[in-house]
Amino acid sequence: MGNLKSISWKELVFLLILACFTGLFRMQSLHLPLDREEGTIAYMAKNMSQTVMPYRDIFDYRPPLIYSVYKAAFSIFGTDTDAIRYFTTIYIIFIILLLYMLARSVSSSSFYAMLATLIYSVYMNNYMMQGLGSYPEIFAQFPVLASLFFAAEAEKGYEHISFFISGFFAAAALAMDPGTIFFILAPALYIVFYLKKERLFSLAWYLAGFTALIFLVFSWLLYRGILREFINSVIMFGSFFAVNSVRGEAGELIKLGAGMFTSQNILPLAGIIYTGVSSFRKKEPAFCGILSMTFITLLAGVMIFRGLYPHYYLILTAIMPLAAALLLRDIFVWVKKKTSSASIAAVLMGALITVIIIFQAVIMKAPDYLRTGRYTIEYYYNVSAAADMINSDSGGVVRDKYFLFAWPNMPDLYFMTGAQAATKYIYSYPLGYFAGDRDAVTGVLFNHTPVWVVLEKGTYAAFQAFLDNYYRKVMDTPTITVYRNLVK
């Protein structure tokens, strides 16, 4: 195990340069409009500031802690898209620092820690993996790494407290991203198979930390009077969504998403395979073992609960650089030993990394389902244009009193316009589970005649006659149509 107190000024300079590079590179994300998932979380977080409760007043199936993250971004930087992007960039810099601390904690090699954080910075900011976004999978990286860090630090002292904190962070990851549901097993298996003493007590402390945060979350839900709605939305609908996401067309898209993930992460996946093999060797078996178990448990959550779009796999990006750096470090050591020359080993390592980067650049392209699918970059820019049009409307009406009906899946539009959703279902696919609410949701259009109606092309034939009588078409794009109420 390494010693964090021995970090040199050269390492600090490296981290400063890497943080500056990450911040500058991610500035291009300021031009990206929110997508459906980001828009849902942003709209929920914004309205929570106005005492509207999640699940009861606005439907969503994500755990509550992710809304608090977005709410923190709004409190610091203001309530707009840029606030989320700025906050995410700073958050990722903290992830880099934590990743470096974890790498130095398990290894005395600063070279290994630098390599791991450099690989993370490159693969985390992969545009094709949607790494420039602000997704729950990105925010869940920090508690996952923190859980591993305190588990690794436990053998250096304060074992019980360290495992308690490790369990607490494992629960925090789950409270941000349901795809981390199986991650609780990784530190637990590490304790059972690799800890040298007091395994039972250490496991009890770890589970106590996990239970403590879960208890706090459920206490807050109970205090707010939304526990039943949380169970229906997150647990019941989440289970329904997981089962149905692997069937039919969605199942085929998951295969494409997995293919995208594999093609964009060849080096990190090679590192995972290497650590899996190394976990059965005498050299660093505990560290390799917990890396392998963490990857397997996180991947299981992604494939079962998510797996559809590339950003669902970003949670794995927190772990894979540690494995890839281990592989490259051992290649360097092996070459150095064979050639008896550190210079030759460094040159060959540099050449290998260059080849990997070039190969990665060649294959960095979107598969067909991203280019031609319904939710493309072009689609989101059309939604952003619609938001600009709605925002330019005046007439003396306070915008947050507007009622907007966006059908079927444009929750980001509610956040970007500041308009109030005409229904608690700000996207439509939960109605496959809550089928009894479908007529009431679509009936909002007829019964309350919202000021604005934004519809995806090919989804509103049943509304056309009503729209022709009460609305006028004010914007028409290849993907969406915007209508304005003739009276209000």
Describe the overall structure.
By secondary structure, the chain is mostly helical. It has two domains: about 5-30 and about 60-370, no CATH class; about 375-485. The chain contains 21 helices and five strands. It has a five-stranded mixed β-sheet with strand order 2-1-3-5-4. A hairpin with a 3-residue loop joins strand 4 (about 470-475) and strand 5 (about 480-485). Helix 13 (about 265-280) crosses helix 14 (about 285-305). The termini are far apart.
In total, how many beta strands?
Answer: 5
Roughly what is the average pLDDT, rounded to an integer?
83
Q: Kindly report the spatial arrangement of strands forming the biggest sheet.
A: 2-1-3-5-4
Order of helices and strands: HHHHHHHHHHHHHHHHHHEHEHEHEE
Structural class: mainly alpha
SS summary, helix count: 21
How would a crystallographer describe the biggest sheet? Answer: 5 strands, mixed
Rg over C-alpha atoms, rounded to the nearest angstrom: 24 Å
Number of domains: 2
Q: Portion of residues in helices?
A: 55-70%
Distance between the amino and carboxyl termini: 68 Å
Strand content: under 5%
Low-confidence stretches: 366-375, 394-398
Short description:
The chain has helices at 9-25, 36-48, 65-77, 81-106, 110-124, 136-139, 141-153, 159-174, 185-194, 199-223, 227-244, 248-264, 266-278, 285-305, 320-339, 342-363, 368-372, 377-391, 411-417, 438-448, 464-470; strands spanning 403-407, 420-421, 452-456, 471-476, 480-485. It has 488 residues and is mainly α.
